[in-house]
Amino acid sequence: MKVKFLILTSLLVLTMGATALNAKKFTYEQIHKMPTSIEKDYYIWRFLSQNTTTAAEAQKIIYEASMLNTKLRTAYNNRTGLTVELPKITATGETNKNWRRRSKAHKSFKHGLALMQQKKPKQAVDYFEDARENYVQRYDIDKSLFWLYLSTKDDEYIKLLRDSCHVNIYTLMAADTINGKYPKTITESLWKNSTWGFNIEDPIDWAKVKQKMYSGVDLNDLADDHKSQETIGIYTYLKAKACNYTESYFPMPYRETMKHMTPERQALIYAIARQESRFVPASVSRSFALGMMQFMPFLIEHVAKEKGEQIDLDDIFNPYKAIEYADFHLDYLTSYLYHPLFIAYAYNAGIGFTRRHITNKRNFRRGPYEPYMSMEKMENHEAREYGKKVLANYVIYLNKLGVATRIFPLLKVLASPSETDKFRK
Asked: For 116-223, where are the E strands, in sequence order?
């Protein structure tokens, strides 16, 4: 028994240290040569986290970061015992102007919601109109139009939503209101397999594309340079940006690796991937969420441990590995949450946050303007908008996978716990 215990203990230690045992090592010169970018920031963090990095190297490389997040600050402090600040970048006048407009619009929209909760829809109208006039992004304008419809029941706002070029829950709900067709989406099938000289799993190759994107080059030409099945995420991202998002691209790559999944799981993975990364395999966020499915490093290590695998964080830049890990993580989330909106909340903000939010008796219960009010009043801004966008993506992808789906039935069940989650009674 003692021998067996020692063997099991050794295996557990090996498993727990799998990621560290398989971790890549980086040199100062490797990192120094990378172009300034969020992707380089990630590698600076990895470099600072190595035991082989000296304090002197850390003090030099930190000033090559484009920004400092908590991970970088902590790793730098652990390596040098020091704190650091980068020179502040002054926002342009246009940026400040747009920020002020958006801030004003947000305040008006929130005031309108408060009046709706007080059963004063007529008074809410002016605030929703003010929000609509000040919002810049089409998504936010559509949000205002939908609430103008709810507060007035004026079909003119539905017509305005139908004229929107944007695919979101508001334009989908407008279509359902009149039993109309959903907005047009584009799903291309590309004949070319790969883009020569481009490594889809290298964040620095993606960083170089972004540099070109902001250098004034023709975005359609840059998109055509990456027009292949392997780089379809980059291609469709650039095409959407080139038309200022007046056309909605919904690519469906990596189908072969998802054939064993139900259409609902495929649609969920596609919906999340589109929102997380636009299907760019080597995507890196400011908080160092990684890959097409934007896994945080701690979650990559947790899933690797659960699967008994050795993995370097960079391995998640392989889109097939990202899908495999997302599918594994979704098995856990969907054992407690059955509705795509709630699953999206949990994927973004964690299952604990989602449980607290949906078990709050003020949220997702039957009542006036529900479930719309509960969806808009969530205090976590990122999770709030993320959930709505993933839900819209999910509806579009289910239809593309041959499962006829409308958004209203999905919204209707949100107040029915038995159909949405394991937490509520």
From this structure: none
